[in-house]
Write a structure and sequence with these properties.
With 189 residues, the protein is of the alpha+beta class. It is built from 5 helices and 5 strands. The protein has a domain of 117 residues. Strands 4-3-2-1-5 form a 5-stranded antiparallel sheet. A hairpin with a 3-residue loop joins strand 2 and strand 3.
Length: 189
Amino acid sequence: MVKYGLDYTRCRWILPLLLGIGVIFGIIALAGPGWLESQTLPYVQQASLWQNCRRPDQGGEWSCESLMGYAWGRAAAATYLVGFLLLVICFALAIIAFAIDTLRFNFIRGIGGLLFVAAVFSIMGLVIYPVKFSSEIDMTGINMFSWAYGFGWTTAIMEICLGFFFCCLPNYEDQILGNVKPTYFYSSP
C-alpha cells in the first residue's frame, strides 16, 4: 500500500473496509445470544450481553432474566456499547477522510486515537461481563464463553490494530504522496 500510495484505487479503501468489518463483528457481538453457553448436554444455560436464559432440563422451556437488573450488567453493556458507537464514528470519519482527494494526515491520526479510546471501552465491557457474571450468577453444568463473546474480543483487537495503523500512517506521508526520490543501487562502472 505504501509503495503505490493511498491514491492507488484498490488500496485506498482497505482501512475503511477493515473498520466496516469491525462494525459488523460488533453488531454480531451485541445481538448474538452466545456470550455464555452450556458446553455439554443437557444444554441448560445460554446468556447474551442483555439476558441470561436457563431451562431446568433438556425438553423444558427457557426462562430468561434481564441482566440490566444488575449494576454490573448495565456497566458491561454501556461500556461495550460506547466502544461500539466510537467504532461506528471512526468508520464514518474514515470514509470521509479517504473520500477527500487530499488526505489530512492529522485527521487520520485523530481517528487512530479515537480507535484506542473505543478499544479501552470495549475491553472494559468484555472484562466486567465474565468476572461479575461468574461470581454473581449461579451457573449449572459446564459452561463456556462462546462465539458472540469471541466476536466482541475480535472487535476489540481490530480496534487496537487499526488504531496503530491509523496513528502510524502519517509517518509515511512522503512515501504515500510520492514525494520521495527513488534510490537506485546500480552504479555504472
